[in-house]
Amino acid sequence: MKSSTEALLEELPPSSKLVYKTLEHEGECTQKELVEETKLVARTVRYALNRLEGEGIIEKQVSFQDARQRLYTISH
What we know:
By secondary structure, the protein is α+β, with helices and mostly antiparallel strands. The protein has helices at residues 4-10, 14-26, 31-38, 42-54, and strands at 29-30, 58-62, 70-74.
């Protein structure tokens, strides 16, 4: 039986799945780090993050090291 996260991921585009798997493997990442890790263009990563956040699969928080940056993590 699939988890609710897996079911939601099936409906999302491949870029969102790649970003999710990268966060799963790397842990907390900024958008810039995700661009570097996935080799996707920034616009595609931004779209994937918005889709994942909209589904409640990931969370966004302000970085304490640099308030201009947002850190993305998988929701638990």
